[in-house]
Design a protein that fits this description.
The chain has 484 residues and is of the alpha/beta class. The protein has three domains: 256 residues, Medium-chain alcohol dehydrogenases, catalytic domain (Quinone Oxidoreductase, Chain A, domain 1, Alpha-Beta Complex); 139 residues, NAD(P)-binding Rossmann-like Domain (Rossmann fold); 49 residues, no CATH class. 30% of the residues lie in helices and 21% in strands. The chain is built from 15 helices and 21 strands. The strands form five sheets. Strands 4, 6, 7, 10, 11, 18 and 19 form a seven-stranded mixed beta sheet that branches. Strands 14-13-12-15-16-17 form a six-stranded parallel beta sheet, with helices on both faces. Strands 1-3-2-5 form a four-stranded mixed beta sheet, covered by helices on one side. α15 links the parallel β20 and β21. The longest helix has 15 residues. It comes from Paraphaeosphaeria sporulosa.
Amino acid sequence: MVTSTRIEEMKNPSIVLYKAGHAKVQDAPVPEIVDPHDVLVRIAFVGVCGSDVHFYRHGGISRMVDPAVGITMGHEASGVISAIGSSVTRVRPGDRVAIEPGQPCRFCRPCKSGSYHLCKNMRFAADPGPPATQGTLSKYYRIAEDFVYKVPESMSLEETVLVEPTSVAVHAVRLGDVRPGETVVVMGSGTIGLLVGNVARQFGAHRVVLVDVLPRKLEFAKGFLECETFLSDREHSAEQNAAALLEALGLEEIDTVIECSGVSVSIETGIYVLRGGGKYVQTGMGRPKMEFPMTVMSEKELVVRGCFRYNTGDYDLAVSMIAKGLINVKPMISSTSEFEDATGAWEKTARGEGIKNLIRGTDWKSHKKIGAMQAAGNNIGPSLDETFADATNSYKHKHTVASGPNIDHAETYRQENIKNLEKHTPTPSPISTKVPTCTIARREMPSIYSSTLSKSLRCRQFLIPQHQQPHGATSHTPKAQKNI
């Protein structure tokens, strides 16, 4: 990849794609905070998506990159808040965040009706436009405060990158109205397919089956999800594969199919295996036009939904699921490339190597230091010295917004933040090292029951003293209890 200046000498190094197969590292102005609700994020890691590969190979998808100006690539990203606007209340400099990489207009009918992801004026990262919207493969990225999501210290910045595809999975499962006890078939076992299967299980699906044509991908899926898998035969028709799948599962029909490959035969197979009144969600992006078993869909009265990115609440739920350990995304991270070798990461993904390949931000060494600090049990937060030394706008004690480099108040704020963190950070205890999924308030009970409850439900318990019983309540606790 071409670069004419050392990255260390650039103010805002960015990976810019000009046309198919031609990208280079170049400097760009540091984004200015122009709205009081803007935040500036220093990028830590960026994930490689299939769309990145398509752009690199073909110069775009539905809209092509303008070779005269190019486009900064990347949309799956994590980072650290570097500066904030005067009205920002959700985050503070030094916070570690996941980025939802699209800003809607907020004024059109879809936005006002709660479907902002369908906004026709959406400014999505790395979209050629017009107007073009720059992506996240740069040192700094500006976005509105309500499109960054603070993550806990228990989540690494590498894991945080996976919040974006997990949000796609959450959106797909919600559209599929997956319910407890259902059987869900996921067509395609790439990143989105794996996460869809994982989220479907969290929504209560009793059987999750991943279907693919590549044995090695299904092998990973089987270990990652501990789920059932089915190897689709490339030489068979959709009807034949559907019949073989149902026979292998010992079922006559399927409740819900979520298609994540975008391949024609996979789409048809999904329609054939569904029960009457079953639910089908098209998540994978394929050819603009293809054959579709319309008659079968109509005769079964299927509920067919398209799926596009994510909407209200999807990011919040994705962060919560990963943070609580309900979805473990660590095994999905296959490699991490240097910033200047972004094209190598794209090529690696194009060859089908790994599940999720990442690209380090330009200051990746400081983020490695963060990981080491956290591993050592340091609770004072993420590389505050480096974060505030780099701040491009002054904090000025929650007042004005500056547009140029100014860190006069960074040290004051840093010391204030450390004091607050030390003051409010609890001493680690056995119960705080495990993330609880619920809290149970209880009366007195035998200790063996209490221990079993904590282990089986992985929850916290709160003992209500007898003298605090509700008015009129009668205690049924015996005066003496035998140990069981």
